[in-house]
Write a structure and sequence with these properties.
The protein is α/β, with parallel strands linked by helices. It has 15 helices and 20 strands. The protein folds into three domains: about 170 residues, no CATH class; about 130 residues, no CATH class; about 180 residues, Alpha-Beta Barrel (fumarase), CATH 3.20.130.10.
Length: about 500
Amino acid sequence: MIALITETSTNLPSDVRKAIADAVGNDAADSRAGLAMSAITLNIDMAVDNVGPVCQDTGMPTFFVHTPKGADQLAMKRDIEEAVVEATRTGKLRPNAVDSLTGKNSGNNLGCHVPVIHFEPWDRDEIEVKLILKGGGCENKNIQYSLPADIPGLGRAARDLDGVRKCILHAVYQAQGQGCSPGFIGVGVGGDRTSSFELAKKQLLRSVDDTNSDAVLAELEQEILDKANRLNIGPMGFAGKTTLLGCKIGTSHRVPASFFVSVAYNCWAYRRLGVIIDPKEGSISEWQYRYPGEIKRMARGAGIPLTGREVVLTAPVSEETIRSLKVGDIVIVDGEMHTGRDAFHHYIMHHDLPEGLDIRGGIIYHCGPVMLKNEAGEYTVVAAGPTTSIREEPYQSDVIEKLGLRAVIGKGGMGPKTLAGLQKHGAVYLNAIGGAAQYYARCIEKVTGVDFLEEMGVPEAMWHLQAKAFPCIVTMDAHGNSLHKQVDEESFAMLENIGKEQA
């Protein structure tokens, strides 16, 4: 189980590699979409080389276990839990198990109903274990529809195949860049509210390149891919020709009163692998989702290459410098930055920073890193990509004003309240490449300190970092311009056009 967790976290499967590789050339290399894909492919290679998490958000480890008759599932559960604890200790998993009421992080990824383990019997002698690590950003873009319903941009969705089609297309649209596109989706049609979502997530266990055994669903899966990629959402929501890399649909019987369509969205960092285990030896006899001829090296560029025209930001940053930036500019952060995400934003609205800490003119990074402490008591960054910023929308403008911030780094963009705050207070939003945890970890030279570690846990603590050549793109500027708003509006117009075609 330790081998399965390690490999799943650090080495994307063959079918996912091929899907990403096929998409790399769809947009110009020097476009925003092209730069995002370049950083993504380089990050995939770095994760393997470093045996580090592809993305710092390793989600809620979810295991699907097929067992032969008479298998000791309690012993298997204990083995899985011990492996999860060890993988967390070594930095292959980020400690993500948080008490829902107290907010206390267990620190070892064990907790009430965590990890998630689904046991199912089968008539074979060996044991099969599949693991999916699905980060919170894409998990938050899961969506469920109850038909009949009016679908924004597409009109009335009835309890039929056309209604299902409309739901799926809207699900892709609403994910935008917040789900770290280009993504993959699993769809569950039917069942009850709970089983429909479970069916959707199980579709993510299918191979990207398989063909649905139901000819009608196979045709719909391909149609969704074609139409979703016309939405021009693109990698990271930067606009582009590749928005969706895979669509898998499963159906279940339902009761007459209910018709649910559930969509499980998965980011490009599609981490799922499986193993067949010899029940006598306890050893792995076969790896699943690993194919002969696998693409071993993915990178086709240097990530976000430096041209010399980038704007270098070193805190404290002046308002004049910020006002000179515009959407589309590439920015390089050198020097001090500070992480701050959900728990920090809530806390700082009611409290002050620790005594002696002044970050006016500074840069805050929406990031929940993976950290390891060495024997000298020093922390090192194992993985440090951006988290989805929209969760901080209720707080961000007020936090910018209170702390005197000049830049916010995250992914997926933010909303109108933050955009107005940026304009009023002279700040910018910088979009880093979602999921590129190894790519950005190499840009952190040193951890200079940490606050709120005991209270908030590793992902939510305020880490003080020294960055070098940390690249990102201005997507919301201090003049009221937002690339995210623009792409959302344009993709919605395209969604409406697709709806008219279907009508």
